[in-house]
Structures are given as structure tokens and as C-alpha cells.
Amino acid sequence: MLTIRQATTGDASLILEFIRGLAEYERAPNSVIATEADLIRDGFGANPKYRCVIAEWDNQPAGFAFFFYNYSTWRGQPGLYLEDLFVLPEMRSKGIGKALLQHLAQIAVKENCYGIRWMVVEWNEPAIKFYEALGAETLGDWETMLLRGPALARLAGVAEEVQK
Question: For the domain with range 2-118, which CATH number is right: 3.40.630.30, 3.30.230.10, 3.40.50.300, 3.30.530.20?
């Protein structure tokens, strides 16, 4: 039986396990530097930077969706940005990923969001086909940009050691 619930501070270690599992799947197992303390600080304080829901199958952790809000100036509406969606390998093919996306879609509709946006690595054909089957579209005209590390510190005019 599948249940989806809001994550709590007590789930920080589980969330981090899911993040590490996703990083391993995406062929970047050593890239995760987040800590439980980071997740607790940024997700469960007075001004949370993200939200997270946990999927459980027969009361066992199965997967998660980690998301936050963005805003479309063109539409004049908020949207959801899905940072991570992950289902444990042994829990796949049970409809858990679809149920997590459906749960986010319900949040988006209830909160008058224009939609849900996310990224997928281009080699992940099974995920792309799955998302397209749900009606998601690939925004092929857009390139993702990222400013971080020394370049971010330089632009901000601060010492590099401030950056994580």
C-alpha cells in the first residue's frame, strides 16, 4: 500500500539517503556535499527554502520528491520546481514515481501554480519517455546556466571561502 506524506525534520537522514541514491543513479556518487544539518536548516525553519514529500510502500521508505517554488513573470503565477524525484531501485515499477508527480500536480493545482518544471539528464531515456507519457514537454530551446564556486564569489565580490 502506497502512502505519501510531508517530510519532517526526523526525515533528514532519509532525505539525504535518497539524494545520494539519485546522485549514484546519475553517475555522480561523490557530488553530494549536503548534510542533514543543511537539510534541517533550509527545509524546516521559519522560512523554508524547499518542501519534500516521502513515499512509503507498506510503511517502508520508497522514494521522495524534493521541490520549491519559482515564479513566472510572464504568467504572473508561481510554479513548482522539482529538484529531485527518486524511487529506490527495489521499489520501482509500482507506480510510486507517477504517484509522487500526481501528488505534486495536486499541490500545483490547489496553489494556483502554472505548472511543474524540472530537468532530466539527456541520457535518461526511460525517464524522458515516462515524463512525456504523462504529458510533459521538453523545452529544447533553453540552455541551463549555472554560476557557482569561484565565479559566483568573484561576481559577488566576496572571498571564495565563503562559498560551499
Answer: 3.40.630.30
